[in-house]
Structure formats: C-alpha cells, structure tokens
Amino acid sequence: MSCFILSSLSAAGLSGNVVDAITGENLIGANVSIYKNGELLTGTSTDLDGEYFLKSLDPLSYDVKFSYIGYEPLTIEGVSLTAFDEKELMVELNEGLVLIECVVVDFMEPLIEYDNTVICRYNYCPGSTSVSEKVEKKEDPKESTTESFNINYYPNPTTDLLNIVLAKATESLIIRSVNGKELLQRANLPEGMIELNVSDYAAFTYILQVVIEGEMTTKKFMVVSL
Fold first, then answer.
1. CATH for 142-222?
2. Dist. CA 85–CA 87, nearest whole Å
3. Cα separation, 30 vs 19, whole angstroms
4. 2-93 and 142-222: identical CATH topology
5. With pLDDT > 90 as the criterion, what percentage of the chain qualifies?
6. In which element (H, E) is residue 188 found?
7. Radius of gyration of the chain from Cα atoms?
8. Is 2.60.120.230 the CATH number for 2-93?
9. What is the C-alpha to C-alpha distance for residues 154 and 164, in angstroms, rounded to an integer?
10. Residues 18, 46: contact at Cβ < 8 Å?
11. What is the DSSP string of 150-173?
12. I want to staple 181 with a disulfide (CB 3.0 to 4.6 A). Which of 14, 51, 177, 213 is the partner?
C-alpha cells in the first residue's frame, strides 16, 4: 500500500492549450495522445477553451501527438515530465490535408467523367476498383448546403449520452472516429429524438454523419471523462 501511495504522490502532469497556428483560435476537441516506445498509453481532448489536462502520469519521457480534423497532426518527441510537477505545453496546429501517395504503374483506361469530375483510372492505385470492372455512375450522398438539413444534438461535450433531434426521417446515421473508422450505424430512423449511449467511448472527438433525402450532414462532438 505504501508503494502505491508514494507512486501516486510522485506522479507528473501535462497541460496546455491547442490553437490554430494562423488565427490563434482555440481548437475545441483536439486530440492529445501520450505514447511511450510507440505504444499509446493514454489521451484526452481539449475542452471548450482549447485546453487539455493530463494527470497521474509517471515521471518519464513521452512522445505527445496532437491531432484535429482538417489540420496537420503534430508529434513532439521526448517530452520529459518531472515528479511532483505539471509541465505546460502550448501547441499550434496548421491547417492542411493528409494526402495518400498513389504510384502510377500503368495507364489502363482513357479519362472518364464522373459527377462532373474528370478522373483517370490506373492499376495498383490505393482505394481504386479493378480496371477490368465497368465504371458505373453512382449517386453518393452529397454534403448538405441548406439549413433545412441541419440537426440538433446535445450535450456537447458529453460524458455518457448523446441526444439527437431529427427534423425529418433519416436514411442513415453513422458515428466515426477521427480516423474514419465506423463505430455505430443506424438506418431508416423516423423523425424525432433518439438517444445514443457513448459512455464506452474514449475521451476524444468523434464524427456524426446523417443522411437525409440523399444529402449528408457532418458534425463533430466530443466525449469527455468525468
């Protein structure tokens, strides 16, 4: 028991603020992840003031990764924490897109028009379909540009329950992690309010996608720990 108490009392802390590098605007719901030897140990998200707090960390050296949707991730290596002390780390993130490299091996088909966008079909391109398959024009859900498809949801941030108010019957509702992994899907929901239990979700930012009449509305919400 005495060893446990000593370890708890000597624990270190890490806190700070995450902002936009250009505007200085606080980034709400930015993810802060703590790594040791490449292994994720713990993490949290910034609050409504763009601030984050991590406590009860062992006084060691860590790699700290900061990420936010639409921004370039930033990893600060070798952040050394001292016992009985809280280190403050202020971070600025730059807007940007992460591009996946595509190596062109061979040109297989002429240019084709797809939803008013000219694309080129190559073999061995990540994410592409086989060039031997016939390309068919599909109507994917389009991002909503009208206020009529906005949805209301609360509370945000939340610790356990997320209430979503649907103004119209909904074709699909999906929750994804920030890296795009699908965590929950509901289909053919009627108009009204639904309640989702997110108490098992880690304290991070998540993406909510709702498709109504072929138009997709994308929102973000944050789960925080008590």
1. 2.60.40.1930
2. 7
3. 9
4. yes
5. 37
6. strand 182-189
7. 22
8. no
9. 7
10. yes
11. --EEE-SSBSSEEEEEESS-EEEE
12. 177
Q: How far apart are CA 44 and CA 68, in angstroms?
A: 12
Cα angle for residues 138, 144, 145 (degrees, 5° grid): 125
Amino acid 134: pLDDT: 39
Looking at every residue in the chain, the average pLDDT score rounds to 77
Q: Which two tokens stand for residue 120?
A: 């080129």
Please report the pLDDT score of residue 214 as a whole number: 84
Residues 6+ apart with CB under 8 A from 135: 109, 112, 114, 121, 129
DSSP letter for each residue of 64-123: EEEE-TTB--EEEEEEE--TT-EEE--EEE-B--PPPP-----B-S--EEETTEEE--BT
Domains of the chain: which residue ranges?
A: 2-93, 100-138, 142-222
Strands 215-222 and 205-212: antiparallel
